[in-house]
Amino acid sequence: MDALVRCCQHVIAENIFGLSHATLDCSPSMTVEGFSNAVLAPDAERQGYDRLSPFAVSGEGGRSVDRLSFGGGRSSSRVRASVLDDRKVVNVVIAKNFDQAPDHIQLLTLDLIRTKRIYTRTSFHSVPMAFLFIPLIESKPQGLASSLNLHLNDHIFMSYYHDPQNGLMNLEESSGWLSDDQGSISSVIRKPSLVLSKEPNEPYLIREEHINALRELSDNVTFSAEISSYLQDIIIALRMNRGVAGGLTPISTRHFQLLARTLKAVDLVLADASPESIIEQVLEGVEAPL
Q1: Is 217 in the same domain as 100?
Q2: Does one domain contain both 151 and 47?
Q3: Per residue in 101-138, is it b (16+ CB within 10 Å) or e — as a string?
Q4: What are phi and psi of 102, to 5 degrees?
Q5: Does residue 208 share a domain with residue 152?
Q6: Residue 173 domain-assigned?
Q7: Which residues pair with 24 in a beta bridge?
Q8: Fewer beta carbons within 10 Å, N or C terminal of the chain?
Q9: Cα–Cα distance between 140 and 271 in angstroms, integer?
């Protein structure tokens, strides 16, 4: 799980996308205030601010916080009226062990996804246009439905099971770290580099303008009558299949149509990448055995 978290951080923030992110280690004792502070990017002007703590400490320029004690050993914070909390929500929230978070935290996450805003003691904060919530959960035989709130599970756009035997390619390429299974074949196969390359003086591979271009392409995708009928046939087949627990909800149908639009946008971007060019690049990364 920790290696998967590092891989997500590397892809999101360090090399590929360059998006702001926050990593949460969820537990049954997580509080609403702790969650709200954790998903906000720290304000560079507040030198003493600790976003992982529910209480801010004194900063510079009179930006201080008074702590008030209450019964039961609890504490609260009162921000002076002169302080304007203008922190921003990060682009990506990585929630480790999110199935262990209490139900009210999961409902707060659902509200964040639906309303695109989150409230703190002093203000409300809107999420950026590029926003993604990634819950990381250990695989269980019962599936996600038994681990997450039913309504939140319905709003998850896509789920993915990562087999540990597949390794973590992005993490291995960046740090030289190899899993036990991957290490035994590292002397034979060399991982090919990505097809895309960074522009000169650009720190990240995929920038905001690329994401906006993909979003615009997906918004402009239209389905023919044949494609719409084909997608609807898949939905009907899944709804009638007894192996699909709970059937398909209306929002999952919309997610499926959005996925089709998004894949078409990616297909338009990769139109010039022929199978032959991809095969050639893969073969270049394979070393002849000794």
Answers
A1: no
A2: yes
A3: bbeebbebbbebbeeeebeeeeeebebeeebbbbbbbe
A4: -65, 165
A5: no
A6: no
A7: 95
A8: C
A9: 38
252 CB contacts (<8 Å, ≥6 apart)?
154
Counting the structural domains of the chain, the total is 2
Which of the two residues, 219 and 189, has the higher pLDDT score? 219
pLDDT digit string (tens) for 207-251?
888 888 888 989 998 999 999 999 999 999 988 888 777 778 889
Q: How confident is the model at residue 61 (pLDDT cuts 50, 70, 90)?
A: very low
User: What is the spatial distance between Cα 41 and Cα 21, in angstroms, rounded to a whole number?
Assistant: 8
Q: Range of 232's domain?
A: 202-272
One domain, residues 216 and 140: no
Both 90 and 162 in one domain: the answer is yes
pTM of the entire predicted model: 0.68
What pLDDT score does 141 carry?
A: 61
Whether 123 contacts 87, CB under 8 Å: no
Q: Is residue 185 part of a domain?
A: no
Do 137 and 228 sit in the same domain of this protein? Answer: no
Phi, psi at 231, each rounded to 5°: -65, -40
35 neighbors 93 (Cβ within 8 angstroms)? no
